[in-house]
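$ fold --in a.seq
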Amino acid sequence: MKKVIVFIIILISIDGHAQTFNPNQLIGTKWQRVERFSDPTLTWEFTKTEIKDSGKYKDPEAIYVSVRKYYFSPTIPAKFDWNKVGKGDKGRYLVYYVEKSKRFFYLRIESISNDTLKFWNEADPDAIGDVSRYVLYKRIK
């Protein structure tokens, strides 16, 4: 029993020291998605309060643009907290709201460097065919 308690304490302390990121690392940058099966036109551009998501889907001549409010959170949120948008809080998770579906989503930030942005996307249990995976972007601005 003591070993189990010690193990749990170690896990909690490891999680408590997880790297955090600052939204200032992304403000004014633009990123292109570079996953193996991804459309190379998918981009994210960051302002202080919004992610401008753009790309092409079925019609190669039409470019969609979606603007999403976002913030960073140290923990997985239970709901979208509008009061945190644009506040500059550090965190391990990028939390964003999709107006069209009236839902929020989050990605665990794995790394932010000068040229690479890497997230962990946990599969949505409500989405058929969704899988947990890394999502990788390269910096283009």
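$ fold --in b.seq
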Amino acid sequence: MTGSGDLEAVGVGRRSSLLPLLRLADESVDHVEAHLDEGELFAWTAVGAMVGAVQAVPRTPSLWELTLVAVAEEFQRRRHGTEMLNAVIDSLAARGARRIVVGTASAGVGQLAFYQRAGFRVFAVDRDHFDRARGYTGNESENGIVIRDLVWLDRLLP
């Protein structure tokens, strides 16, 4: 299946082959590996290179969580992430999803803007989420901000 741009959706063989890419979505290797086999993993290539992947996990028949969203660094800021996200939302909506949730670090200002541009809205904050018990060192930072809190966003579908 080819997307509207130069992306092509591809089947995912061994999910572990995408670990380097998926690590871009979460700093905790333990977290990524522990949840690697959950839900459905969507992936895309362009010009023979892996562009990105989105993992979607059903929580109920109408509620899905995007647990990992990653775009390879060389493909970022080229609208590939938006195209990927829209394809996943369309696929989940066709299966009866009525609400999609995603969590991201409060320090990830680019990710927060990305999701809000895609129609997601903040509905909760999980304070002090990124702790040692979840595989984080407490020293991670992004945009000069220590990563502490998880911001939950959702998008309601018709």
